[in-house]
Design goal:
The structure holds 2 protein chains of 2 kinds. By secondary structure, chain A is α+β, with helices and mostly antiparallel strands. Chain A is built from 11 helices and 10 strands. A 4-stranded mixed sheet of chain A has the order 1-4-5-8, covered by helices on one side. A 4-stranded antiparallel sheet of chain A has the order 2-3-7-6, with no helix packed on it. The two termini of chain A are about 20 Å apart. By secondary structure, chain B is of the alpha+beta class. Chain B has 3 domains: about 90 residues, Butyryl-Coa Dehydrogenase, subunit A, domain 1; about 120 residues, Butyryl-CoA Dehydrogenase, subunit A, domain 2 (Beta Barrel); about 140 residues, Up-down Bundle (Butyryl-CoA Dehydrogenase, subunit A, domain 3). Helices cover about 40% and strands about 15% of the residues of chain B. In chain B, strand 2 and strand 3 form a beta hairpin. Classes of the chains: A alpha+beta, B alpha+beta. The interface between A and B is large, with 52 and 55 residues.
Chain lengths: ~400, ~400
């Protein structure tokens, strides 16, 4: 048990921070809000030279096989700088391909990801926004040597930038044996795909994607047919914990701006940061961010150990959704009117953190998952031990 | 980062659990229920025969003072192993945390003679301290304390009054903060003295808490029925009773307090009820009504559980810093904000889950879990007040953690 960062972990974080402070100023963030693809290819290639895309991918595909906690540290810095990189969507899909795709598909896709030549995304959400198997209605039907997909996916991150999209489809009705879902890696250049851009709070690139008789080869099936829900669930858990890291990085920077502002801005003859009312707000911000960090890295660490981590990921996201929102709201309060100005950079952080609290599960959804683990499973719960309760050896 | 325990630590935890399962017999429990000890029983106090026998066995296992050096009666082990043992015993209402404690400050600032004199007996329970900090006019602003210690040859003469010296009627010694120089700025004129409670001129008077009648069941957060006020009238003590140097008591005291704010006892007193309420609602119905099926209650229980994880992880963070030999800047204070405030939120939420049953005190017909939840409503808020109020703790987080200005 050691919650502090090792020397190597500090180095990973510091290197990422230094790189982004140099190469990703707020000016670039603003420019990319208006960019068709939403990311600068030069920065994406530089990120690959630093090994970010392949950080947690296996070595035989050009990755570094580092733990997810390291990827969390990098995404924290990506969040801190609001770096307009499709890193989260790419690594989420790539990690699932690495763990569940066949060898042919892994060799075809992952080296390009690690090299920075490929952008990936994934698609689960539909009209029903819950992250449950019943919400998936998009159909994939076997035909010839492949499958044909019909339906529609919502909130697909970076779709316009992506070369491939990992799509969760319904291939059978839910049964006692499985949820009837399957995952397919779809080439975004395939015929029959039409993205509809969504106008979002973060001004990022999300799309509704319509599938009209989209053909995918059989080898692009990721995981076993009809048995895709556990694969998708692991993917969503990783995505959730990694998004928490990104949110926390952005939120900590947002809070730091407020704290600096409070030391500089004077009212009633003193810096407003000398007022206890402001100090206690700032103390809360620090404690909430630290709390979110601890929850998030515990979840990522458990994933690295191959331990169940769904409850831990939900704990982190439920907490971060509410506490990160509260932090950035307090930061706005401390900044006063200036924080409402387009020209002032704070709004860049505010809008993104707000948006990320709504992605990958609301506080209510995640707490419902935690409640099921606590209340609907047998055994006496003990704090510090996993829930659902597992019998001790 | 490593969020797991070593195989040795896991084995230690299993050993402690097995010991508790074997030795916490119905007879021992009955003896404990007869006492009014709040959080739990401590070694060496006026406990019963079976409990003293239990503490002897715990000592034989080497589970007392694990992280203290062997030459002072400890086990020379690591802080986390000590934490694990303390945590498991705290769940069984047994306090092994050296009751309060003074020991970390003695280890940090004491003379060799003081360490030899106090540490082994604090570990065995033969000695325990009453903490003489708060005064009628000095609570949150502790450094404004007025209790005077005046040097007279090889002695100090102490005059003044201390409030809420909770263990004074049971402790063997007092850990006293007194002013040795009224002409220096308030933080710089304070010294710490350690001396026996039976020193002439020292008087203890009881103050009865709102937990007095009926007595709170054991395990209640601040379930103690009694605290004290302690008076010092020309109390003469040898100058060798001083801990650390003259007028440097604030720094020494802060060190001890800092370490006292973290650890198993401090964490568990605030989060035990989370476990209790989950286990209660999932196995209890009221004539067909199941609180565990109520969506609002489920959402609240999950929220509290998540907060409890934050408390646990903040404790683990403090432990990690101690393990590395570091000192806290703000982390101990953050823990001391989070756990007590969480404990209050849980206690209040539970009252809304139990409804009218939540009112029933110890001994009442239909009392839930011997009324512990109701008694906790009278005690949980105390943990956010003593040993540094949550407001003072937030000041420290802002100033030490964020370097925020005083003016």
């Amino acid at each position: 048990m050691d919650t502090t960062l090792s020397e190597e972990e500090v180095m990973v974080r510091e290197a990422a921070r230094k790189f982004l402070e140099t190469h990703c100023p707020p000016k670039l963030v603003r420019e990319m809000e208006k960019d068709a693809k939403g990311f600068p290819p030069a920065l994406w290639r530089q990120a690959a030279e630093l090994g970010w895309q392949g950080l947690a991918l296996p070595e035989q595909y050009g990755g570094s096989a580092m733990p997810l906690t390291y990827l969390g540290l990098v995404l924290e810095e990506v969040g801190r700088a609001l770096a307009p990189l499709p890193l989260h969507s790419t690594v989420v899909a790539a990690l699932t391909i690495a763990s569940d795709a066949n060898e042919e598909l892994r060799s075809a896709i992952l080296p390009g990801v690690a090299a920075g030549d490929t952008v990936l995304t994934w698609a689960f959400h539909e009209q029903n926004p819950l992250l449950v198997p019943e919400a998936v209605q998009c159909r994939a039907v076997a035909e010839g040597d492949g499958f044909v997909i019909n339906g529609s996916k919502m909130f697909v991150d970076n779709y316009v930038a992506a070369d491939h999209c990992l799509v969760v489809c319904r291939t059978a009705p839910a049964s006692a044996a499985n949820a009837g879902l399957s995952l397919f890696l779809v080439d975004t250049k395939s015929a029959g795909l039409s993205p509809v851009p969504l106008v979002t709070l973060a001004k990022d690139r999300q799309s509704e994607v319509r599938f009209d008789k989209v053909r995918v080869p059989r080898q692009n099936l990721v995981g076993a047919l009809h048995q895709g829900w556990p694969v998708a669930e692991r993917m969503l858990e990783r995505a959730t914990a990694l998004l928490c890291a990104q949110m926390l990085g952005a939120t900590r920077k947002d809070a730091e701006m407020a704290i600096e502002w409070s030391k500089y801005r004077k009212a009633f003859g003193q810096p407003i940061g000398a007022f206890q009312s402001i100090q206690h707000m700032c103390a809360d911000m620090l404690m909430w961010i630290d709390g979110g960090n601890l929850l998030t890295y515990e979840a990522l660490w458990r994933m690295d150990q191959g331990l169940p981590a769904g409850v831990e990921a939900s704990q982190a996201k439920a907490f971060c959704n509410e506490k990160c929102e509260a932090v950035i709201r307090i930061s706005q309060t401390i900044h006063g009117g200036i924080g409402f100005m387009m020209e002032f950079d704070l709004q860049l952080w505010y809008r993104r953190v707000c948006a990320w609290t709504m992605r990958l599960g609301t506080a209510y959804e995640h707490r419902a998952k935690v409640a099921r683990a606590l209340l609907d499973c047998p055994g006496q719960v003990i704090l510090g031990r996993p829930v659902p309760v597992v019998a001790e050896a | 980062m490593d969020f797991g325990y070593s195989p040795e630590q896991e084995a230690l935890r299993r050993d402690v659990r097995a010991f508790i399962a074997e030795h916490m017999t119905a007879e021992v429990r009955a003896e404990m229920d007869g006492l009014s000890e709040g959080f739990g029983v401590s070694p060496g106090r006026h406990t019963g025969t079976l409990i003293n026998d239990l503490f002897r066995k715990i000592g034989e296992r080497g589970w007392l003072g694990i992280s203290y050096p062997k030459e002072y009666g400890g086990q020379g082990g690591d802080r986390l192993s000590q934490y694990i043992v303390e945590e498991e015993f705290a769940r069984a209402n047994i306090s092994l945390g050296l009751g309060g404690s003074g020991a970390p400050a003695i280890m940090a600032a004491g003379t060799e003679e003081q360490k030899q004199h106090f540490i082994p007996k604090l570990i065995s329970g033969e000695f325990s301290f009453a903490l003489g900090f708060t005064e009628p006019q000095a609570g949150a602003d502790l450094a404004s304390l007025q209790c005077r210690a005046v040097r007279d040859g090889d002695e100090y003469v102490i005059n003044g009054q201390k409030m809420y010296t909770s263990a004074a009627h049971m402790a063997t010694h007092i850990y006293l903060m007194a002013r040795t120089n009224p002409n220096l700025p308030k933080h710089r004129g304070i010294s710490i003295f350690l001396f026996p409670m039976d020193t002439p001129g020292l008087t203890v008077r009881p103050l009865w808490t709102i937990q007095t009648d009926p007595p709170a069941p054991i395990g209640t957060t601040y379930g103690t029925p009694r605290t004290n006020e302690t008076f010092f009238d020309d109390v003469r003590i040898p100058a060798s009773c001083m801990l650390g140097k003259e007028n440097e008591g604030w720094r020494v005291g802060a060190l001890g307090l800092n370490l006292d704010r973290v650890g198993a006892a401090r964490y568990l007193i605030s989060v035990r009820r989370d476990e209790d309420i989950v286990n209660f609602v999932k196995s209890n119905r009221f004539d067909g009504y199941s609180p565990a099926a109520d969506p609002a209650i489920r959402d609240k229980i999950a929220e509290l559980w998540i907060e409890a994880q934050v408390c646990r992880l903040m404790t683990m963070r403090s432990m990690s810093i101690v393990q590395h030999g570091g000192n806290f800047t703000y982390e101990g204070s953050a823990e001391k904000v989070w756990a007590p405030e969480h404990g209050v939120r849980t206690t209040e939420a539970i009252s809304q889950m139990l409804g009218p049953y939540g009112q029933l005190l110890n001994g009442s017909p239909h009392a839930v879990e011997r009324g512990v939840f109701a008694h906790n409503l009278m005690g949980a808020f105390q943990s956010g007040i003593n040993h540094g109020s949550t407001q003072v703790m937030r000041d420290q987080v802002a100033r030490r953690g964020l370097d925020m200005p005083r003016k």
